[in-house]
């Protein structure tokens, strides 16, 4: 006969705590969790619910890193900061506690973990489970713990907005920074654990009430997870993954030099280009001196990182004055007479294109080590793929030709007043106003009718594309649907077949085509 879990004991009566007292009670029972597998990792908070080191968190901690290792850091005010998690893990390896993943309740997004066995004289600080239904009602005051910076523990206050079976919603809403953290009553008792909902469905998290946690602890819900405890020391970044190390070092360097949003955008541009082995130009950098300083910081005393820069950094960049620079190894040299910031790279063969000071399109002859004219002029926009140039001229004509400018042909029957051209894997996209047209295999799709409407940005990979519409939602041509309807996306970048985005509130997310799932981008 199957019975339910043993009922929870009633919560001891006690006075309401001040906010400071509630924080001081909950913080020592809250841990920072890092799950990593190779160069992929996720982070979340976790709550110790038994003095023996039983921890409950959000199961999405393991999303995409199921075969990896989990580490925990107990609350320590000296950790407060916003350091990249992998750099933080390496620097504080001695204080990292190896964690055993025990049980996962996927429908409720809960994860049960076990810390190393504590000393009998020093049990873990915990937030024990009690029956708190009498204090869990709409309108009741609540306190939540969240991160404010990756290693900084912060507090929020609010009230219960609604109660649903298995979910407590609050006002203000629970955000991704609350993931895995505790939701407390005014008396400091644990009401639930925060799980962050699927981004494609909702932007707010919910707290899973203690009844669900009790079912997970007693084995009534969830499935057993077999993962070995991780006791091996963390290998050095240099020997493990230099590409990852460069991305992290670049992000940290940008964070010191720029405000958050511009730093995130520029870092994302680098990641996008590195994913294409440098065959995506980087536009509008502050100056060559700024770029050279970044490279010097990233590669300092590291041959492995220098090799990554020499192999993966953008082959062409432009500065804010419109001058173009070509990468040679880890150095960038200015393209003579370039002034207008028009650049393109053929994604199939790496051939470089830019315009000179008269807006003539020129290409780099790698064998002759010189720039040669294509006789296409005056050019305002250009895309190149599979040896074919697609150029939008200043007079509004859209032209195509071979890489050296021969066999030119006008593609569009009318002049284009404000548009852009993009090319990838033999396919060209014309962005005219907010409409998208696609040209492939020598003809226009839909007989010159748009393939997408009301778009403000497009990123593509051959036949497939992602579109950011005018409302801030993301459409996928592969899925043939909106994969994000939150209307809070600011900018997109293609990472292979997948997608990286920045939201309007400066958070980054990553969408996997294979998993059809969003997850936070945590690699800086």
Strand fraction band?
Answer: 35-45%
Distance between the termini: 50 Å
Low-confidence spans: pLDDT under 50, at least 5 residues?
227-240
CATH topology-level fold name of the domain at 19-224: Thrombin, subunit H
**Mean pLDDT level:** 89
Radius of gyration, CA atoms, in whole angstroms = 27 Å
- Structural class by secondary-structure content: alpha+beta
By DSSP (H or I, 4+ residues per run), the number of helices equals: 8
Topology, number of strands: 37
* Strand line-up of the largest beta sheet: 1-2-3-6-5-4
Shape: elongated
Query: According to CATH, what is the class of the domain at 19-224?
Result: Mainly Beta
The biggest beta sheet is recorded as: 6 strands, antiparallel, barrel
Q: Helix share of residues?
A: 10-25%
Please give the CATH architecture of the domain at 19-224: Beta Barrel
Task: Give a quick set of tags describing it.
alpha+beta, Thrombin, subunit H, six-stranded antiparallel β-barrel, six-stranded antiparallel β-sheet, 8 helices
Write a concise synopsis of the structure shown.
The chain is of the alpha+beta class and 524 residues long.
């Amino acid at each position: 006969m199957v019975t339910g879990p043993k009922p929870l004991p009633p919560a001891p009566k006690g006075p309401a705590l001040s906010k400071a007292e509630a924080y001081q009670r909950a913080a020592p029972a809250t841990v920072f969790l890092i799950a990593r597998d190779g160069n992929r990792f996720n982070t979340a908070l976790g709550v110790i619910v038994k003095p023996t080191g039983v921890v409950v968190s959000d199961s999405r901690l393991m999303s995409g890193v199921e075969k990896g290792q989990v580490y925990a850091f107990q609350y320590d005010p000296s950790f407060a900061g916003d350091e990249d998690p992998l750099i933080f893990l390496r620097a504080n390896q001695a204080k990292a506690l190896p964690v055993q993943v025990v049980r996962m309740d996927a429908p409720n997004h809960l994860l049960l973990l076990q810390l190393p066995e504590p000393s009998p004289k020093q049990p873990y600080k915990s937030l024990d489970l009690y029956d708190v239904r009498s204090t869990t009602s709409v309108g009741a005051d609540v306190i939540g713990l969240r991160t404010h910076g990756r290693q900084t523990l912060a507090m929020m206050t609010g009230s219960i907005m609604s109660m649903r079976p298995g979910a407590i919603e609050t006002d203000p809403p629970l955000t991704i920074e609350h993931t895995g953290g505790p939701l407390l009553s005014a008396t400091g008792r644990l009401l639930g654990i925060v799980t962050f909902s699927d981004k494609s469905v909702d932007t707010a998290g919910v707290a899973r009430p203690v009844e669900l946690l009790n079912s997970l602890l007693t084995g009534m819900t969830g499935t057993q997870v077999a993962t070995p405890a991780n006791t091996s020391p963390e290998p050095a970044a240099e020997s493990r993954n230099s590409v990852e190390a460069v991305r992290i070092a670049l992000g940290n360097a940008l964070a010191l030099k720029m405000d958050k949003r511009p730093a995130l955008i520029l870092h994302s541009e680098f990641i996008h280009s590195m994913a294409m082995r440098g065959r995506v130009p980087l536009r509008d950098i502050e100056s060559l001196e700024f770029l050279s300083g970044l490279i010097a910081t990233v590669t300092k005393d590291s041959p492995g990182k220098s090799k990554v820069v020499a192999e993966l950094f953008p082959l062409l960049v432009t500065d804010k004055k419109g001058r173009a620079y070509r990468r040679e190894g880890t150095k960038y040299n200015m393209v003579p007479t370039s002034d207008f910031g028009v650049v393109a790279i053929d994604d199939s063969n790496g051939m470089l294109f830019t315009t000179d000071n008269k807006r003539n399109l020129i290409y780099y002859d790698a064998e002759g080590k010189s720039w040669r004219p294509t006789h296409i002029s005056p050019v305002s926009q250009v895309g190149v793929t599979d040896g074919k140039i697609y150029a939008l001229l200043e007079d509004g004509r859209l032209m195509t030709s071979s890489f050296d400018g021969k066999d030119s042909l006008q593609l569009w029957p009318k002049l284009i007043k404000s548009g852009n051209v993009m090319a990838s894997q033999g396919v060209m996209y014309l962005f005219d106003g907010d409409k998208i047209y696609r040209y492939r295999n020598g003809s226009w799709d839909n007989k010159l009718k748009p393939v997408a409407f009301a778009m403000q940005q497009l990123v593509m990979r051959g036949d497939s594309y992602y579109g950011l519409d005018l409302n801030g939602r993301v459409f996928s041509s592969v899925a043939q649907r909106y994969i994000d309807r939150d209307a809070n996306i600011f900018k997109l970048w293609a990472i292979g077949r997948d997608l990286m985005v920045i939201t309007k509130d400066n958070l980054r997310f990553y969408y996997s085509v294979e998993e059809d799932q969003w997850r936070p981008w945590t690699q800086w």
